[in-house]
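User: For a benchmark we're assembling, each entry needs the component sequences followed by a predicted structure for the full assembly. Here are entry 17's components. Please fill in the structure.
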Amino acid sequence: MSAQLKIPGFEGRLIEPSDSDYELARLTGNAACDARPALIAKAGNADDVAALVRWALATGAVLAMRSGGHSVAGHSTGDGVVVLDLSPLDSIEFDTRGAMAWVGPGAKAATFTKAAYERGGAVSFGDTGTVGLGGLITGGGIGWLVRKYGLTIDSLLAAEVVTADGELVTASATHNADLFWALRGGGGNFGVVTRYHLALSPIGEVLHGMLLMPATAETVPAVLALGSAAPDDLTLMPFVMAIPPMDEVPATEHGRLGLWVDTLWAGPRAQGNELLARLRALGPILMDTVAAKPYPAVYPEPGDGPRGAWTSSSIFLDDVDGGVFETVRDVLAQAPPGESLAIFRVLGGAAGRVADDATAYGWRDRRYLVWLIADYPPTEPGAAYAAWVADGRAALANRGSGAFVSFQAADDPSAVALAYPAATMARLREVKARWDPDNLFRHNHNVSPADMAHD
Ligand SMILES: Cc1cc2nc3c(=O)[nH]c(=O)nc-3n(C[C@H](O)[C@H](O)[C@H](O)COP(=O)(O)OP(=O)(O)OC[C@H]3O[C@@H](n4cnc5c(N)ncnc54)[C@H](O)[C@@H]3O)c2cc1C
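Assistant: Structure for entry 17:
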């Protein structure tokens, strides 16, 4: 059954609750966000996006943008909202030299990475291949190449954007520079991006995999310090999590806290092997999967298991010592049943050499980011898990500050306030007042326009 509703100028597919594909179409990547939108509008091109934005403006409909559907806060769905589904906008067009690409927001990190690798290049995306570029880029983008090539936004040359009045504009360093600044970290507050222009950086084979060692007050600070002082070619994402029963690890270690050192080296092989030897010397190694592989292998094919429910919080730290580890250990010990972990991201490198005020991601000087995650059965009520990630962040608050907007599951003004330094937030509100004065794009980590009351 096709939808009866007509939206002037919109030629994509409209899916209403009575349509047979509605139940599938309403799902997002996180089973914790189990909402029932009023309508799902699959845009086929920028004209569809503009038509839907104009219609939302005229009717007062609440728009939820969806590119890859991986919003941690569930912003790509909602009860009664109109989902603007941009997943069909997934084209990837490289220039003839393979140095740059125009890409749609619906393209996924893994798909783009495979195609770019055939041209010898890459863009620094996140840790997960199924994340959509639409939300990844507007949040900033911190991943495997963050120390070598910076955040994803550091490779962004321009964006085509449908603004709140339904106009298609280009944002770049020379056109609408305020909008370009805000798009790079300010989330979906300023318009709907219909195409990104990205610069590729050279990449070849990498050393990649996991080193598992016991998580202790000695190993955690030592691994992070090594990662922070290493050349930019090394990016570490070590996480602390209980070791489940697994054949590769002696049974005596099962149930103990492990430090799972997710490792990527993207430089000269001999130097990488030397650094890896230093990493391995930091602890008894319980498992070692690090191997040479083509760069796209950092994004394995996704499994087809059932969708899990999860929630998260985060905090930036400048220093990690044994005391931080002990706090993380105690926080993990209080987690409700399910899989809970604390992922440390080692920052700095190329990401840290960009000025704090160059983009709306304003945490360039921070050395580490901690991401607390609770993964739980969708049948469980989420409140206990949301409280746990919030309490966990609070326990670390005397050792750090701020939060990464893309890892904020909480959906309230205080969660948004944490994600931006005060000067960045003030500037974002000014840009919002110019480009979206009526706050049409509000179903997100919302930045209110400067002249609107601020919660
Ligand atoms: C398993 C997992 C792993 C992750 N790992 C990382 C990581 O390593 N590094 C990292 O930086 N982030 C990571 N994230 C966070 C991720 O980057 C954000 O959740 C991001 O918003 C997801 O993008 P999406 O397009 O898939 O999401 P969607 O749910 O489709 O969109 C999320 C929000 O992004 C905005 N948005 C989406 N598309 C557009 C558009 N076209 N124009 C303007 N705004 C838009 C909107 O505000 C929307 O509500 C991870 C998330 C998950 C679920």
